[in-house]
Amino acid sequence: MKKFLIITGCIAVIVAATSCQRVRRGTGHAYMPDMGYSVAFETYAPSQERLNNYEAHYNSKPVEGTIARGDAFPYKIKNDSAGLLQAVSVTNPLTALDEKDMQEAGRLYLVNCGICHGTKLNGDGPLFKGGDGPFTSKPADLTASKMTEGSMFHVATFGKGMMGSYASQLNTKQRWMVISYIKSKQGGANAGKTNGTPDSLSMNKAKPDSATVAPK
Ligand code: HEC
User: Fold this and answer.
1) pLDDT (average), residues 144-172
2) Which has more pLDDT, 189 or 4?
3) Ligand 1 atom 7: the closest Cα is on which residue?
4) What is d(CA 139, CA 214) in angstroms, rounded to the nearest whole number?
5) What is the distance between the alpha carbons of residues 118 and 108, in angstroms, rounded to a whole number?
6) The dihedral of CA 130, 199, 188, 192: what is its sign?
C-alpha cells in the first residue's frame, strides 16, 4: 500500500511539473470567425471604395442641390452687404397661410423670437423689459419695422447686431412662416384678428403693456 502511494505521488508530481511546460503555438479553431471578428471598414480610408463597390454610400455628401424633406425653399443669398441689398427684393415664397399654419407660425415666433421682441412684437420681450432685463440691446420694434419680408428673412437667417442667426433653430420654411406671422401683425390682411396668437402660449400675459419705448 505504501509503495502504491509513493508511485502515485511521484506520478502526480511529474504530471504537475510537466503540464505547465507545454508551449501552445496554435490558436485553436474559431467557430464561424466572420461572426467573431468583423471585417474592418475604415470610414475615411481608401476602403471607402470597397463600400462604394457594394453600393453603400453612407459616408458620401448629399448630391449637390439636395433639399431636406419639408424644406422646399433654398436661400442662396450670402451673408454680406451685397446680400443684404439683394434680400430686399426677395419675396416670401409662402402665399397666405391657412389658420393652422398661422397658429404654428405664431407658436414658432413665441418660442424663438418673443423672448426678445415680445408677444406684441414691440421689441419689449421678457429678456429686455424696457431695459431692466438681462438683454441690454433693445430688440427692434417689429411692428414699426419698415423692412421688406426678404430683409426680415435675411435677418432671421444671418442675424443683425446683437441678434444671432436663427437658421439652425428654424428651417427655411419655418423662418418664412415666422416672417408671414410678423407681417400679418404689422397691418397685413390679418391685422387685428386674434388668429395666430395662441393666448395659452403667451409668455408675459400678466405683464402690463410697456410699449412706451419709442420705435426707432
Ligand atoms: C436675443 C434676443 C433676440 C431674439 C431671440 C430675436 N431677436 Fe430679432 N433683434 C434683436 C435685436 C437686439 C435687434 C436689433 C439689431 C440691430 O438693429 O442692431 C433685432 C432685430 C431684428 C430685426 C430687424 C428689424 C429692423 O427693422 O431693423 C428683425 C427683422 C428681427 N430682429 C427678427 C427676428 C425674428 C424673426 C426672430 C425669431 C426668429 C428674432 N428676431 C429673434 C434681438 C433678438
Assistant:
1) 93
2) 4
3) 163
4) 12
5) 13
6) negative
Q: 99-135: per-residue pLDDT in tens? A: 999 999 999 999 999 999 999 999 999 999 888 888 8
Residue 139, ligand 1, Cβ within 6 A:
yes
Q: Which three cell numbers stand for residue 96?
A: 397666405
**Choice from 84, 110, 111, 113 to test ligand 1 binding pocket (greatest atom count within 8 A of CB):** 113
Inform me whether the pLDDT recorded for 42 exceeds 70. no
- Ligand 1 near 167 CB (within 6 A): no
The three cell numbers locating residue 173:
420654411
Distance CA 78, CA 74 (A): 12
Q: Which residue has the cell 506520478?
A: 11
Place of cell 436663427: 166
Residue 58 has a pLDDT of 65
Q: Is the pLDDT of residue 22 over 70?
A: no
> Ligand 1 centre from 117 Cα, in Å?
7
Angle, vertex CA 155, rays to CA 151 and CA 159, nearest 5? 160
Atom of ligand 1 nearest to the CA of 178: 35
Give 56-105 pLDDT, tens digit per residue. Answer: 776 667 777 788 887 767 888 999 989 999 999 999 998 889 999 999 99
CB 188 within 8 A of CB 85: no
